[in-house]
Amino acid sequence: RMATAADFETEQARQDLILRVVRAYFGVILARENLLAARDALQAAESNEQRVRALEKVGLVVTSDLLSAQVFLAQMKERRIRAENGVDLARMVLARELGFDPSQNLSVHEPSEPLEVPAASSKTVEQWEQEALSQRPALRAAELQRDAAASQKQLAKAEFGPKLGLFANFERDSEALGGPSGTNWTAGARLEWNLFAGGADRSRLAEAHARERQASYLLEWYRSGVRLEVRQSYLETLAAAQRAAAAKDAVEQAQESLRIIQNRYQAGLTTITELLRAQSAQLDARTAYLAALHDGRVAEAQLERAAGGLTPDSELIRQGESK
């Protein structure tokens, strides 16, 4: 039982590794998409600064507008630098989880699929929970450890019972090879009864009983933890899908708002502050949308891992291979 429990613990460690790889994999995609968003925002800030500079030269805007545009341009440059560092760091994390030197160039392992809205789960949370209780490797290992502890307690109890042994001997003796010989034999039975062994047997029984109770309590604790983890991961998948839908609408609204405010600013109907705020809102909406897509894919992997099914043949991995 303990050997089989160790096998289940190895499988649990394998699924934990797959989850880390999935998280790092989509982390690279998210960092790369954030870099593209930062570059687009920087390009827009540069164009905006040039436009404000031209308007300031002909006296259509005040110098403070140009200074505000230059400050915003510097902020976008800083954001692009942070995004570039984020891509490098995400790639090193993925390389480490794959077992490579993080300093190596692993372009061959560069993720290629885009971030997409995760598909809705076809199972209910109750179905996910039952699946987890039946096949989660760590839980199976805890069950076997509980059973092994119960067997140890039974063995400790057996030390107090009577022991009946049978024995027999046969002997043939001769002074010379092939000479006259004599034979003798012995047979009998032996009964042992443990009346007192200095308290050692009772101590071993108490220890085995305590270990069985500990294993049982730990098993119940693991079961409640698995239920909680499944429900938490399930709710995170639903929340990520809802966030992605809301963020997608926010991106479209921010783009339209920016277009209107740009036209109003060029016509002198609004301030530079409103224009820069609209540009920041567009970038924030885009990054929030990307974060929701990333969280949705990671939540899918967490849910499969919580149910004990995050293997190379799992649905999430097969979807990635098909793409």
Structure description:
This protein is mainly alpha-helical and 323 residues long. 73% of the residues lie in helices and 7% in strands. Strands 1-2 form a two-stranded antiparallel ribbon. Helix 1 (2-57) runs antiparallel to helix 4, helix 1 runs antiparallel to helix 6 and helix 3 (125-135) runs antiparallel to helix 5 (200-266). The chain is elongated. The model has no long low-confidence stretch (mean pLDDT 86).
- Radius of gyration, in angstroms, nearest whole number: 35 Å
Low-confidence stretches: none
- Annotation, overall tally of beta strands: 2
Span of the ends, CA to CA: 41 Å
Helix vs. strand class: mainly alpha
- Write the H/E string, N to C: HHHHEEHHH
Q: Treating each run of at least 4 consecutive H or I residues as one helix, how many helices?
A: 7
Biggest sheet overview: 2 strands, antiparallel
Mean pLDDT level: 86
Q: Could you give the topology of this structure?
A:
Elements: H1 2-57, H2 63-98, H3 125-135, H4 137-158, E1 163-174, E2 181-192, H5 200-266, H6 272-306, H7 315-322
Antiparallel strand pairs: 1-2
Helix pairs in contact: 1-2, 1-4, 1-6, 3-5, 4-5, 5-6
Quick tags:
elongated, 2 strands, mainly alpha, 7 helices, 323 residues, 73% helix
What would a concise description of this structure say?
By secondary structure, this protein is mainly alpha-helical. The protein contains seven helices and two strands, in the order ααααββααα.
